[in-house]
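Anyone able to model this chain together with flavin mononucleotide?
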Amino acid sequence: MKTRITELFGIEHPIIQGGMHFVGFAELAAAVSNAGGLGMITGLTQRSPEDLAKEIAKCNELTDKPFGVNLTFLPTVSSPDYPGYIKAIIEGGVRIVETAGRSPEKYMPAMKEAGIKVIHKCTSVRHALKAQKIGCDAVSVDGFECGGHPGEDDIPNMILLPRAADELKIPFVASGGMADARSLVASLAMGADGMNMGTRFIATQEAPVHQNVKDAIVAASELDTRLVMRSLRNTERVMVNPAVERLLAKEQELGKDLKFEDIIEEVAGVYPKIMMEGDMDAGAWSCGMVAGLIHDIPTCEELVSTIMSDAEALIKERLSNFL
Ligand SMILES: Cc1cc2nc3c(=O)[nH]c(=O)nc-3n(C[C@H](O)[C@H](O)[C@H](O)COP(=O)(O)O)c2cc1C
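re: yes, here you go
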């Protein structure tokens, strides 16, 4: 399949693995890229630019296909060493960066000068237009369904994607709630040039996370996620568990008075415990509603090739039969 996204990134299939904290290591990024998609190392999971350089080198050992690095710009006061991470990306020979969170405007000149293609992930048409204006090559449009941070507008992809298509000139991929060939074909129909998946790629053989995480996603239904931290304007869609129930009870009790410190136990530093140790009740971890569509743990190659062959059949058979 050829779209503006496969052309832009030099990949075979228009499927991207979004950056995921404590999931997007070299093993997963390489497996997705080797399957013909675009794998993404999560920059900030690496504690320093030096560690990111090592992870990039590892990924270069595991694949000779293009892969990218996710750089999430956090709204924190003490900012990570973004120039250092960008230097590690450039020196590691990576030429694709997925930015997310705050606008990457400040860092665009450095990345563009190095010939890096930037895809910015955003949750609204206005942010997508801003990304286009500051020179991003593509955007990843994350709907309300998504695992992680869906923003504060709550617009699902059935509306958000056609709205993005009507406004944007640069290519975009659909993100949030994507799992299979139906997701891909529907995204293409709504004007996207491909799709980005997070949660679906966690439940794969190569995702270097504890088996408990994969089993929890397979066991979950579309009813098992919750939105937390809304009152802090830092909304996150997470898998429900006792820690999340506790967090929600505090949110309800404290209302507008809730401060980050009140919920620190449920959200800070919990990812290694969950993803590495499989302690599923250690805190709140991002997960999409799409868990309801995930029933197996295939290899990335099986997942991507099944999506592509099913998509072809969907287009050639089911859809063309309507005409
Ligand atoms: C466990 C997990 C961790 C994530 N961490 C990040 C992150 O660090 N940076 C980022 O830009 N997006 C992050 N995301 C969002 C994904 O890249 C992607 O946009 C999202 O999962 C898409 O929705 P889906 O899960 O329905 O496919 C994360 C998602 C999950 C499920």
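The chain has 14 helices and ten strands.
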